């Protein structure tokens, strides 16, 4: 088994800090001026904004990490991370199996770009979808 690519390790450590949640530690894995875009084209300035957004959308949320794939783009390494979200909505209903896909660009040992997609908006709009997942 080969060693994990350093960019994947950076993303894993960022995700661990984010889920703690420890936005101050999470920020150490990001470059100044990082571009963060969540579903719905919601732009976030930093990990503190991610924590604040998640605090409004969920009572709590965690990621069940899935697969990590990476590719060298010459000037950066792109890392894709997938898996599922689990947690609790603000009204107390629990959920699991909420798919996510994140895309990270890592340059010089720091995350410079992060895109996030998941099923949460669809599940909020049509709770019956979540019940069948």
Write the layout of secondary structure elements.
Blueprint: H1 6-19, H2 23-27, E1 30-38, E2 42-44, H3 47-57, E3 60-72, E4 77-88, E5 94-107, E6 110-118, H4 120-125, H5 127-132
Parallel strand pairs: 1-6
Antiparallel strand pairs: 1-2, 3-4, 4-5, 5-6
What does this structure look like?
- The protein is α+β, with helices and mostly antiparallel strands.
- It has a single domain (6-132), classed as Nuclear Transport Factor 2, Chain: A (Roll).
- It has helices at 6-19, 23-27, 47-57, 120-125, 127-132, and strands at 30-38, 42-44, 60-72, 77-88, 94-107, 110-118.
- A six-stranded mixed β-sheet has the order 2-1-6-5-4-3.
- A hairpin with a 5-residue loop joins strand 4 (77-88) and strand 5.
- The longest helix has 14 residues, at 6-19.
- The N and C termini lie far apart (33 Å).
Quick summary:
The chain has 133 residues and is of the alpha+beta class. The protein is built from five helices and six strands, in the order H-H-E-E-H-E-E-E-E-H-H.
